[in-house]
Structures are given as structure tokens and as C-alpha cells.
Amino acid sequence: MKIKNNTHLSIILGLVISFSLMGPEQLSAQTVWLDQLDLSVATQGHGTPGSNKSVDGKTLTIAGKTFDRGFGTHAESSLLIQLDGKAIAFTAQVGIDDEVAGRQPAVEFIINGDGQKLWSSGVMRLGDAAKSCLVQLAGIQKLELVVTDGGNGNYYDHADWADAKFETTGVTTFKTYNPVASEPYILTPQPSAKPRINSAKVFGVRPGSPFQYFVAATGDRPMSFSASGLPKGLKIDQQTGIISGSLSKAGTYEVILGAKNAKGKAEKKLRIVCGDRIALTPPMGWNSWNCFANEVSADKVKRAADAMVKSGLINHGWTYVNVDDFWENNRDSKDQSLRGKFRDEAGNIVSNSRFVDMKDLADYVHSLGLKIGLYSSPGPWTCGGCAGSYGYEKQDAESYAKWGFDYLKYDWCSYGNVINGLPNNDPSKVSSLSYKGGNELNTAIKPFKIMGEYLRQQPRDIVFSVCQYGMSDVWKWGDSVNGNCWRTTNDITDTWVSVKNIALDQDKSAAYAKPGNWNDPDMLVVGTVGWGNPHKSKLKPDEQYLHISLWSLFSAPLLIGCDMEKLDDFTLNLLTNDEVIEINQDPLGKQATCVQTIGDLRIYVKELEDGSRAVGFCNFGLDRMEFSYKDFEKIGLNGRFQVRDLWRQTNISEIETKSGELLLKVPAHGVVLYKFSPAKLME
Ligand code: GLA
User: Fold this and answer.
1) 541 is a domain residue
2) Are 405 and 373 in contact (CB under 8 A)?
3) 328 CB under 6 A from ligand 1?
């Protein structure tokens, strides 16, 4: 009762103060409901902001109580509202929506006014009664309604600002906004007509394995290729630029690659390391999941491979064409093309009717100069409920090799059920995703060790991509199970919140990246993505530049996740910048970490083989930053450096780190990506 009286008293006081500040034309107070404003500009983790509805489109419900009006959002989330001092107070009932029952969500509602925290709900959990919020807003220009994940790092939180409304000084609406620019703009210059060789400078292969390296080069066609100093067993096709054969002896071989056309000639050194390790630079390619999800087919995969060639991406080093989940038969899909026996009488895995001939598919992709990848789970079922490899690991590794696959993504999914001791073939008892055992080292390692061993025994090199979302610090033991890359975090989506949170979580594993071992922050979310519901990436253009820059700095596997037949100019510009890709593919194999923060600006530095450093000035904040930077020594730079803007491929200036300064202009949610090369290298 007391609180209620105080609430009323505060509103009356607020009104009195505000009216006394107003001109005579604005004397009637108004109520403006939050749901009357444009909520579509809100940034949120998943889904679409709901006006009077929850994220799942249902009636807003908090702890059993329903609300007709409000804003249903998905934590984390942020909504900016321009008040211009014309609001008196904001009231709402906040809480977690009951539709996430069964999970363990936690959130915190926060209200910021002109950069100051005005109110916070404290951490709220599912089932907590809605909390009343009342905030005085007299004089406030900009309001931000924020929902955080309450510190649990959980991706499932649905949060409601129910009954949310403003008392205003008389205005009848407010503008909501998102300060991140939305117009795409192209930075990558068109490639020169002269040849430029873009494929990696180092390549690892095991003795006896079939060798396939494509000399990726831009420039006018026709082009002819050469490779001098090739060791015995290898040959180059001068027309296609494919080096093939096999090496019988371990050793390191220095080769000079050449590419020639009517406009000129390019050369590049390639180091072939025949030994124990493969994937000496992060794998680059495409994966079907973010685009097609459960609608993938051999035909779509072939078309993606064709598009890799036709779009010219192949000439920038893009290589793998990877089939994700749903090439196997499914346990419970209604789609008949996914129904059929999981294995033949001999226990060999059977592909579904959309993938009639796996060997034919692999041969086709190889014939284009590309490589091909596949997906499975150590559990009885994949995450999508298709047949997994549990109990058949050896046979599966042999099938992949026999068909000619070059890459396996091996996804934990239902393996937790195996630890539970549930029968591996009783669909009714096995869930598709069970994390059980993933956080205990022995059980976490075991299934990957088994498959890692079998892959290693095959007569071809198969990149082993461990996928278990970072459980048990996989980066510490991934190499010991023959892993070449491993997911460090949960699944990505095409939202700023997802990309930001994944990016902020990469430093923990950075020290473990090295040639042959890469931390994997998940696939790229640029272009037309959608997991079966195609749409343009919801990331703003600057967010996409930041995403690609960070993944390059992280030495992350670069797997395009979009529809390859719908590549637009902006997306191609993101994926064809050879100087940005070169940072990712640097042979030293170091991963950038954040070495300095200035407010929301995070400065990531990656050491490069030639003594240069790539530096990403990454603005995670909502305000554009323009300032003069001079802390070079703090980021490990001492001496004279040539500074190059990698996206624009232009030299900026030469600086002396003791006295020099750089004027930096970094867009909101954007990046400035520079390379600092010791001046003596440039002489
Ligand atoms: C998991 C993985 C995704 C994708 C799906 C397929 O969620 O993390 O990358 O492979 O499974 O079902």
C-alpha cells in the first residue's frame, strides 16, 4: 500500500515539475504506450520484437498473469527511444515470459537515461511475479530499455515489458531508433586484371595421402599456372592450376607458384609440409546449415559448389563445400525424402534419397578444384534427429574416405544419452541434444578420440572439426584427439547480440590456436541466411565488416553460411578482400586477442609471420568514435611502421610509435582494420 501511495505521489510530483518547465501550448498530459512505437528497430538475441505479443507470438504472460499490452523481446535486447525531455515517467510490469518454461532463464531489466542507469529489476528468474517499474524521466533526452541475460550466458530468455507506457508532457509519440548505419557500402577494390595468387602460403599433407592444392588467383583469363621445385610425386595442371599426386616421404618443400596472363605474371612462395599435421591455415569454404538446414540436398550442394566457381570465390582461396546435418535418414521427419533405413545389412551408413550417390557428389566437387565435407554425431542421433555414428565409428570413417570426403564436422548432439546408458536405437528414449557428460573431461574427450583415431587411419586427409560448443575447455585437448578445429561457443545467428557475445568469448581459448588447430566461433552469417527461411542477414553493414574482420583476426575457420546462388555485391565485397583473408590465413597461425579497451572500443592485435601486426579497432558501442590514437606501445608496437587500411587496400601513413598519432574514425558496431608493417620491411 505504501509503495502504491509513493508511486502516485512521484507521478504527481513529476507532472508538477514537468508542467512548470513547459510552454503554454503543451499543457495536457498524455499516455503513450510503448507498443505504439516502432519496436522493429530493437536489437535482440533472436526472433522478432513483439508488439503486444511474446517473442513466440503468444499473449504476454508472466508467472501466470497475462497482459494485453507491452513489448515481448528476447534477451539480450536493447531499444533506444528519443524522448527529447518530453516524457515525465515510464511505468511497466517486467518479467520472464512463461513460454520458456522447462529451461532455466534469468534476465535483468535495466533502464538507462542519457547514459546513466535509472532503474534495474535485479536478476529475475522464471516464475518470479512481474516487477513494477516506475522511473521519473523529466529532462531525459535518450532512453534505452535493456534486457541482459542476467549473467547466465543463456540464449533462451524471453523477456516482457508488459503494460509499458509513458506519461508525457503532451506529445503523442516518440521516435525509436538504431544508430547503426543501415546502407551497405563497398570497401574492397576490384581485383586487378594482372594475376595475383591468393591461396595459402603453407599447406600440410600426410605421406601417402592424395594431394590436392588449387592455385587460387585473381586476374584476367586465360591464365596459365606453374610450380617450380615441386617434389617428386606432385604435378601441376597448367590450365586449371590444380596440384595433385601424393608424397611418399615426410619433409618440407619450398615451391614457387606462378600465374601468367596477357597482363602480366605473379609469383608466390608455397611451403609444402609433408608430415603429421594438416589444416595448417584455417579451413575456408561453405557449409549448408545456416542456409538450408534440414532442406539440404545433393543438388543444392552441387549448385553451391558451382556458385563458388562462378562467383569467383574459388580464386580467393575458398575451398571446402561442406554438407551439414540431414544427408542421413531421419528418425521422425514427416518428409518422406528423409525416411529410410539408417544403415545397410553390413552396418554401413546409408544416405537419404536426396543424396543418391555420395561418391558421385564428392567427385563432382573435386572436379571443380574444390574439396568436400560431411557431418555426423558421436551419439546415436545428430542434433536434427538423423542417424549418428555411435557404435559404427570405424565403418563411418571408412565410408567417408571411400566416398572421397575431405572434412568431417562431428557434433556432440545426442552423445549425452550414451552416458545415460540409454539404448542407442530406441528413438523414443533418446533426445537429440543432451549435454550430459560434456562437462566431465573423460566423457567429453572419449567420443572425439575414437573418431579422431579412425579418421587418421584413412588413406586420405580428413580435416576433423570437433563440435561440442566449447564444453570442458575443448581447446585444451582438441589437438590430442586429432582435432583440427573446434567450436568454442554455441550456435551463431544473424543478430548483433549473437555475433557480439560470441566474439567477446574468444579470448579464453586464443593461446591454443596454432597451425593445424583452430578455435571455431561458428560459421559466417553474411549474405542470405535463414536455416531454411531465407532472408538477408539481419546484421547491419558495419556489423558485417566487424564480423568478417574479427573472424579473420581470430584465425577462425571461415565457412560461408549463405545461399551461394544469391551472393550480392556487398556480400562478395566482404568475402573477396584478399588482404583481409591473408590475415586469417597467415602461416604463423596466431589468434588475435583484445589488448586494450577504450570505452566500448576493443583493440584486437594479431601477430603475423613477417613481423607485422594486424590491428582491429572494434567499436562494440552505439556511438561512432572519432579520436586521435597514440597508445601504440600498449598494443606492442615499437618503432617505425607503415600503416595500411586492409579493407580499402591503401596505405594510410608511416608512423613513429613514440611520437606519432593516428586519427581513427570507427563507426558504431564497426571496425577499422589496419596492418602495421615494420618500415624496414617495406624498403
Ligand atoms: C548443432 C550445430 C550446428 C548444426 C546443427 C545441425 O546445432 O552446432 O552448427 O550443425 O547442430 O543439426
Assistant:
1) no
2) yes
3) no
